[in-house]
Amino acid sequence: MIERLYGGADKPIRKVLSELFPEVPYSEICAALRRKDVKVDRKRVSSDSMVVSSGSTVTIYPKKVKEIKFLYEDDQVFACYKPKGIQSEGSPSFEESVRCLRPDARLMHRLDTNTDGVLLFTKTPSAYSAVFDAMKEGRITKYYDAEVYGVPPVSKPTELRYYYKKDSEKGRAILSESPKSGFLPVSLRFDIKKRTPNGAILSVEIHKGKMHQIRAMLAFYGYFILGDGKYGSDEINRALGVTKTRLTASAIKFSFPSDSPFAYLNEITISI
């Protein structure tokens, strides 16, 4: 049994179930409705034409859920593969699904809803503190594959350095080539991994991640990530039939001090 509070606009029960329970396959949502294994505000749903309103408590009794892929796990930390189309945290979220299996898990970073790949969690307070500090200090390197429109004119690994400001009201990143008040320095390193019919797949490396950092920086550089409507071109995305951002968090590496109890992670690369 999974129960969650719905907070969106009035929608048919099928759409609400798909939004609230992304870990349940759509075929199982339909089957649960046929079995009458769905409740809204503790009352069993008898019709799949029902409309659900904001503030309703929705319950489903699924017989199967999507399997969560664990990429690495020990007594202190673990990492999972987050698919595209589900937010990292909040409700509903990938974090909620993971905590059904690991109740003490703490999410250490985020991926955009339409970015898939490696998500890191900790299991203990000491691991949370150590990983949190390592991220602040740039001791954790994150690698991404980004398919961009066009081919950057480079023949070797290249570093981009800009100045960044988060516009919380608009939910986007603002970049500048020169220092400005309220802007912070950001950087990333990339290389061309493979050419594609419409551009290239880049290998991207960052040490400290900010909201939309990779998407905004590559677009500012002149090569937006395909599927990205916020920093890219809806017209081009539609013409190419790309609906989700082609950005994947491919790997994570650690660099703890040699005397840290977590230095054993330095020998590990967690990848998809």
Structure description:
There is one protein chain. The protein is an alpha+beta fold. It folds into 3 domains: 2-60, RNA-binding S4 domain (Structural Genomics Hypothetical 15.5 Kd Protein In mrcA-pckA Intergenic Region, Chain A, Roll); 69-139 and 255-271, Pseudouridine synthase (2-Layer Sandwich); 141-249, Pseudouridine synthase, CATH 3.30.2350.10. 20% of the residues lie in helices and 35% in strands. It contains 6 helices and 17 strands. Strands 7, 8, 9, 10, 11, 12, 13, 14, 15, 16 and 17 form an 11-stranded mixed sheet that branches. Strands 1-6-3-4 form a 4-stranded antiparallel sheet. The protein has a two-stranded antiparallel sheet with strand order 2-5. Strand 12 (158-167) and strand 13 (172-176) form a beta hairpin. It is globular. The two termini are 30 Å apart. The mean pLDDT is 94.
Give a short summary of the structure.
The chain has 272 residues and is of the alpha+beta class.
End-to-end separation: 30 Å
The CATH homology group name of the largest domain: Pseudouridine synthase
Overall structural class, as computed from helix and strand content, comes to alpha+beta
Give me the number of helical elements. 6
- How many strand segments? 17
**In terms of per-residue confidence, which ranges show pLDDT below 50 for 5 or more consecutive residues?**
none
> What percent of the residues sit in helical stretches (DSSP H or I)?
10-25%
